[in-house]
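Inverse folding, one chain.
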């Protein structure tokens, strides 16, 4: 789980990596501990006492060039449709040093600075969020609305400041990724999130996570690891970042299709 993953992640970091992580943790507002659940452990998830019917459905799109120029330069654009909720967008920078952000971005009420910790790895990201009315993302995907106008004014400004020479008209939608999201508090533990990301023709990626403050991150990681192991879960094998997998899964398909149409 996020936390199981983190506890094991701390154990697999080198001494210098651990020192760097703790140093960077001072500049973030929250820490998310993540774990990709191995396929052979997924039946154990039901021991955690959640109700699958309480899950929320999402459709997620990323936007990038066919060769993922934005992602390779630490920039991620995402839009989501969520069941019974408004649409939302995000411009994410990762990795990032928060002190390097412009003052107006760093002080924005729409900015989230967070550290993701997984088995043997961590990364600090800055996510500038935006809210759009229900249906806005769908209209963008069908061409009824421009991609640039889907994002807020401050998001467009951040994109203009950070883009590696890529314009809005060079971006294509990558997705959708069908996601089932469930948040609940297991008996005797803290609030936890399970996300199941579906990719056509592949076994879904399942991630379990929990959040902590920088002050109690190590303590929460240890508690999480114990809790998960008590329920038959542990971070082993490949830990796949959701964003990277989604981008790499869809980019070759969309890029190849587009080049094919051009003849």
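Residues assigned per position:
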């Amino acid at each position: 789980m996020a936390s199981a993953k983190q506890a094991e992640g701390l154990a697999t970091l080198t001494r210098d990596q651990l020192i760097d992580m703790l140093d960077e943790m001072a500049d973030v507002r929250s820490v998310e501990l993540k774990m990709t659940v191995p396929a052979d452990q997924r039946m154990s998830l039901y021991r955690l006492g959640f109700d699958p019917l309480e899950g929320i459905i999402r459709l997620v799109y990323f936007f990038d060039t066919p060769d993922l120029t934005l992602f390779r330069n630490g920039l991620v654009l995402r839009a989501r449709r969520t069941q019974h909720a408004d649409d939302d967008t995000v411009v994410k920078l990762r990795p990032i040093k928060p002190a390097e952000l412009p003052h107006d971005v760093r002080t924005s009420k729409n900015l989230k600075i967070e550290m993701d910790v997984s088995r043997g790895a961590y990364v600090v990201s800055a996510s500038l969020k935006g809210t759009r009315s229900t249906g806005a993302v769908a209209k963008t995907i069908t061409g009824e609305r421009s991609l640039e106008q889907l994002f807020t004014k401050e998001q467009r400004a951040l994109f203009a400041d950070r883009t590696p020479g890529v314009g809005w008209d060079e971006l294509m939608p990558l997705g959708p990724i069908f996601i089932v999201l469930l948040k609940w508090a297991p008996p005797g533990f803290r609030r936890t999130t399970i996300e199941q990301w579906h990719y056509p023709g592949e076994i879904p990626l399942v991630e379990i996570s929990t959040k902590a403050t920088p002050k109690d991150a190590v303590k929460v990681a240890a508690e999480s690891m114990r809790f998960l192991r008590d329920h038959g879960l542990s971070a082993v094998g490949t830990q796949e970042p959701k964003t990277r997998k989604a981008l790499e899964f869809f980019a070759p398909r969309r890029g190849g299709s587009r080049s094919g149409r051009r003849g």
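DSSP finds nine helices and nine strands in the chain. Confidence is low (pLDDT under 50) at residues 1-9, 256-263.
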